[in-house]
Amino acid sequence: MKSNRSVIFLLMLFLLTAAGALYSITLLKPSNTTVAQVAQQKRPVNRSTHPTPVLWRIPVSATANKPTSLSSGWFVTDSNGRILCLTEKGDIRWQTSYSNYSWQASAVVDNETLCAVTQNGKLVLFEMNSGAVKWSKETDITCLHPPLIEMLGQQRVIILLSQEDGTLACLNALDGSIRWRSPATSRSDGPPTRFGDLIAYGNCDAAVHLFSLTNGQLKGSIPLEGDEQVAGGILPLPDENLIVVGTRNGKLALLNTTSLTCIARASVCDSEAFATPVLVDGKRIFMPVSEGRMTFWRIENNQLVADGVVKLASQVDESIVVNNILWAIGNRSVYAARITAPAEQLHYTTLGDDIRSIVPGGDGNSVLISDGELICVKGF
Q1: Which comes out higher in pLDDT, residue 331 or 174?
Q2: Measured on CA atoms in the order 141, 275, 337, 279, is the torsion positive or negative?
Q3: Span 33-49, pLDDT tens digits
Q4: Which of 165-169, 240-244, 362-366 has the lowest mean pLDDT?
Q5: CA-CA distances (angstroms) from residue 7 to 1, 10, 13, 203?
Q6: What is the pLDDT of residues 209-220, one digit of tens each?
Q7: Can you give the pTM of this predicted structure?
Q8: CA 319: distance to chain centroid?
Q9: d(CA 143, CA 201)
C-alpha cells in the first residue's frame, strides 16, 4: 500500500514539473514586439535614455552655499562657518571652519586668491592653495549673491550688493580699501550684472538701476509696472543697449539702457518669472518657468517673439548653459538638452529630493547640491 502511494506521489510531482516547464516556455516565446517597443510603451514623459553619469559625490552641510568653480576644482562654504576647497575629482585640498561666521557666498578673485563673504558683510580673502587668510574687511553690506570681480583700470576690484537697500560697495582686491559706494535704492534680491561700463540690478521697487563701474554713480533707472518687481538676474544682449529681465507678474521684459524704457513685454508664465534669462546660439533667449516649461524667444523689430517651448516633467528652478548644453534643475531631477534641438535630445536623471545650486566647471562637468551631498555630474 505504501509502495502504491509512493508511485502516485512521484507521478504527480513529475506532472507538476512538466506543466511548470511548459508554462515557462510559453511565456518566453518570442513575439513581434521588440524590447525597444516595450520600453517605449512604458516610458514616462521625459524619462532619460542616457542618464547623466555621476562622477563623484561627497557629503556637505545641509546649509552649504552655491559652490564656486575653480580652474581645477571647487570652493564650497556654508552658513555654519565651514569652508572646503576641493580638487576637480572631489578630493579635499584644504578645509577650515569659522564658528562665528555665517558664510553667504564666494568667488574667485584671481588665479591665486578666493574670497568669501558672510551674511552680515564680512569679506575674507584666502590663498587658493593653502587657505591662508590674506586680509579681511568688515562692511555693512548684507550680501545675498556672490561678489562681482572686475578690473577697474589696472586694479582688480570686488563689488558687493546689499540685499537690504541696494547699495553697491567697490573694494580694492589688493588690500580691501573702499574704492566707492553707490547710493541706496531699495531691497534687491537679484544679482548684480556688469555689461560695458555699467553695473545693473533689478529690485523690489519695480525698476532696473544702472550704475557707473568707475565711480558708482547712479546713471539712470528703467521703470517697470507696479507689479513687475525684478528678483532674478539680467541678460545683456549683444547689442549693449538692450537687456532682458523676468518680472514678478510672469513677464519677460526687453529694456533699452539708453532711452531708459521698457520697449517690449511678453507673458511667459502665470507665476513669478524670477529665473535669469540665458542667451543661446547668440540670438535665442531661453527662459525657464516654474510650471515646468523651457521657453525660447527671439527679438524681431524690437518685439519678443515666441520661438519654441519644451515641456518638462517637473517645475524648473535653475538653469545654466555650458558648452552648448542647457542644464536645468527641476523637482528631484537634473535636465540636460542640446540647445540645437532641445525637444529631441532631452535627458534627465533623478538625484534626490532637494536639488539646487548647479554650477558649471571649466571641464564641461557640473556640480550641484542634493540632499546634503555635493555631486559632480558629467557633461554630455
Answers
A1: 174
A2: negative
A3: 222 232 233 333 334 44
A4: 362-366
A5: 10, 5, 10, 90
A6: 999 999 999 999
A7: 0.82
A8: 5
A9: 14
Helix (H) or strand (E) holding 255: strand 251-256
Q: What is the pairing mode between strands 261-267 and 251-256?
A: antiparallel
3-class secondary structure, 104 = strand
The residue behind cell 564666494 is 106
Of 322, 254, 318, 310, residue with least CA distance to 290: 318
Task: Give the other-Cβ count within 10 Å of 371's Cβ.
Answer: 14
Q: Which three cell numbers stand for residue 51?
A: 542618464
Decide: 180 and 162 in contact? Cβ < 8 Å. no
Determine whether 188 is exposed, middle or buried from the number of CB atoms within 10 Å of its CB (0-12, 13-18, 19+).
Answer: buried
CA distance 288 to 181: 34
Helix locations, the chain, DSSP H: 2-27, 35-42
Domains in the chain: ranges and CATH:
63-184 (2.40.128.630), 316-337+347-380 (no CATH)
Is the Cβ–Cβ distance between 106 and 145 less than 8 Å? Answer: no
Q: How far is CA 271 from the centre of its chain?
A: 19
pLDDT in tens, 185-195: 999 998 999 99
218 alpha carbon, distance to own chain's centre: 29
Poorest-pLDDT segment among 13-17, 145-149, 180-184, 272-276: 13-17
Contact 266, 252 (CB under 8 A): yes
Inter-residue contact 134 to 127 (CB < 8 Å): yes
Q: What cell numbers appear for 67 in the block?
A: 559652490
Report how far residue 359's alpha carbon sits from residue 93's, in angstroms, rounded to the nearest whole number: 19
Spatial neighbors of 18 by CB under 8 A, at least 6 apart, are none
**First vs last Cα of the chain: how many Å apart?**
74
